[in-house]
């Protein structure tokens, strides 16, 4: 007895065509992890931001815009938002100014061992947590800290006066913590620049400054954008450093969010501030991505000025 069961040719093609490609299977895992680790928590945060706060550290399900209205109409929180933005911009610019020369030097080193040794030194600062590095700077910039004593000996600060808490201590700590991210972002970009373009510029009579401004700097624009954006975003979301190195007048939005949740027990309002911060970060990242995509330089179009 023959089996009359068969699969129609069209059904076979449909079945075969429905099999996912291996590359999509590989990509599905990190996408799923991102959704689970970031998408789901953000959705919960968004839902909580519309809840109503209840006395005693509780909250009741509902839908209210009171939390967002409170944030957008409060001079305190709008002022802290502006301050957080200013500190993040200052940190990103300082890291760019300090990090570009170092990244350029590392990218142009010929010796492999020396380069790896310097890169290891830069990366080694990331082995310590923000808390340890924050406390270290709190000691160094304290009343009896070695940095404070050195500055007092030079007459730059009053003797016996601590630099923490203060805006200067906060900026120093944040630049120190986030500088490696800038250096690594710039290093990978500068290292990939075709050095023959710089050599051609010099052969055509351009000086070192002209070669840098007309060739090297434009071709490292993507690294500048990615490094600056990364440091800016990390500065926006950091909690430990403003808490340790700054006083109440130097507290940023993450510190206020922590106070609302941990001290005031107002989870919905803290969630609303967090949502505003996340949306702002998403807008910044999207804007930078569009700018970089639309103005991506072509190495063949690099202008060499004789």
TrEMBL record:
Residues 81-290 form the ABC transmembrane type-1 domain. One of its GO terms (biological process) is transmembrane transport. InterPro entries: MetI-like (IPR000515), MetI-like_sf (IPR035906). The chain crosses the membrane at residues 31-51, 82-105, 117-136, 166-187, 223-241, 269-292. GO terms for cellular component: plasma membrane. PROSITE patterns: ABC_TM1. Keywords: Cell membrane, Membrane, Transmembrane, Transmembrane helix, Transport. It is a multi-pass membrane protein. Coiled coil: none annotated. It comes from the Archaea. It holds the Pfam family BPD_transp_1. It is found in: Cell membrane. CDD domains: TM_PBP2. Belongs to the binding-protein-dependent transport system permease family. CysTW subfamily. This is ABC transporter permease. It comes from Halarchaeum nitratireducens.
